[in-house]
Amino acid sequence: MITVIIILGIQLVYVSFFTLRMILMLKGRVFFASLLSSVEVFVYLTGLSLVINSLNNPLNVAAYCGGYAMGVVLGSKIEEWMALGFVTVEVITRDTSRSIPEQLRNRGYGVTNWLAEGREGSRQVLKVLTKRRNLALLQETILSMDDKAFIVSYEPKAFNGGFLARRVL
After folding, report:
1. Which regions of the chain carry the CATH code 3.30.70.120?
2. What is the pLDDT of residues 92-110, one digit of tens each?
3. Which residues contact 25 (CB under 8 A, 6 or more apart)?
4. Helices marked H in 83-134
5. Comparing C-alpha atoms, which of 69, 72, 67 is closest to residue 3?
6. Which residues does 27 contact at the CB level (< 8 Å), separation at least 6?
7. What is the pLDDT at residue 164?
8. Which residue numbers in the chain have pLDDT < 50?
9. What is the structure's pLDDT at 112?
């Protein structure tokens, strides 16, 4: 039974590391991803050898598979908690005054805004780049100013210059 628990734990660690390594690579953090991969391979080989040496025990195989599934969930939760990178937030609001962009600027956000035409009249579009870990706070702040604001966020692959680059980099 102890082997089953060890295999489950090893798979949990291995797949969490695998998930994090992939995310680090996608975010361009290749150095950290390569360091993590060396530990990941060691953990993987240890777990695999335990299962290969006892394929006649279905509990070991089940632990290997279950640990893999749990590792995917854990790795995703860790990545969510780390919230690496940046997001671009685009806001469309009926408020065409300078109030919302100015309030956001006063809170430290870099905001680019312009007037636009929607189906039901004039709108203001705001574009804000922020750290991913600040996304929920930014959305909450915007909705406190306009509870009907349309908010879309997406991850930029790269950016150069601008207000945030001067403050963060």
Report:
1. 86-168
2. 999 999 999 999 999 989 8
3. 33
4. 99-106
5. 67
6. 84, 85
7. 59
8. 165-166, 168-169
9. 94
Query: What torsion do the CA atoms of 156, 158, 164, 169 make, to the nearest 10 degrees?
Result: 140
Residue at 50: amino acid letter: L
The pair of structure tokens assigned to 33 is 């991803």
Token pair for 103? 């309030």
Look at the chain and count its residues: 169
Could you confirm whether domain 86-168 is CATH 3.30.70.120? yes
- Alpha-carbon distance of 85 to 157, in angstroms, equals 9
CA distance 35 to 169: 23
Assess contact for 127 and 142: CB atoms under 8 A: no
Q: What is the pTM of this model?
A: 0.68
Contact by Cβ (8 Å): 51, 7: yes
Q: Quote the CA–CA distance of 140 and 63 in Å, as a whole number.
A: 41
Side-by-side strand order, sheet with 150-154: 111-118, 121-131, 86-93, 150-154
Rg (CA), the chain: 23
Looking at residue 168, its pLDDT comes to: 43
Dist. CA 29–CA 136, nearest whole Å: 24
